[in-house]
Amino acid sequence: MAKSLTAGELRVEDQDTLVQKLKEAKEELFNLRFQAATGQLESHGRLRAVRREIARIYTVMRERELGIVTVVEKESSDG
């Protein structure tokens, strides 16, 4: 994941996309932890950012599960 995702951006995504983004973020976190363990990590701040992205994704998924927030439709630019 190249950039940080906001909760608002995540709320407009469907469940499958959220699951995919969660998988990608977990893979990145694993790689960052591996780099940190071997002394190759250059950006320690990225570890924190990825953990927060994972937490945001889990939060949005849980909100939907509890019915707190429903899926928000993306705005169409039909004019």
Order of helices and strands: HHH
Number of strands: 0
The termini sit apart by 31 Å
How does the overall form come out from the CA principal axes?
A: elongated
Beta-strand content: under 5%
Q: Mean pLDDT across all residues, rounded? A: 87
- Helix percent band: 55-70%
- Alpha carbon gyration radius: 15 Å
Unreliable spans are none
Question: What does the main sheet amount to?
Answer: none
Structural class: mainly alpha
Number of helices: 3
InterPro entries: Ribosomal_protein_uL29, Ribosomal_uL29, Ribosomal_uL29_CS, Ribosomal_uL29_sf
Protein name: Large ribosomal subunit protein uL29
Pfam family, one: Ribosomal_L29
Family: Belongs to the universal ribosomal protein uL29 family.
What can you tell me about this protein's structure?
This protein is mainly alpha-helical. Helices cover 66% and strands 0% of the residues. It has helices at 7-11, 15-38, 44-66. The longest helix has 24 residues, at 15-38. The N and C termini lie far apart (31 Å). The model has no long low-confidence stretch (mean pLDDT 87).
Task: Please render the helix and strand layout as text.
Blueprint: H1 7-11, H2 15-38, H3 44-66
InterPro entries: Ribosomal_protein_uL29, Ribosomal_uL29, Ribosomal_uL29_CS, Ribosomal_uL29_sf
Protein name: Large ribosomal subunit protein uL29
Family: Belongs to the universal ribosomal protein uL29 family.
Name the descriptors.
79 residues; mainly alpha; 3 helices
Question: What's the short story on this structure?
Answer:
By secondary structure, the protein is mostly helical. The protein contains 3 helices and no strands. It starts with 6 loop residues before the first helix and ends in a 13-residue tail after the last helix.
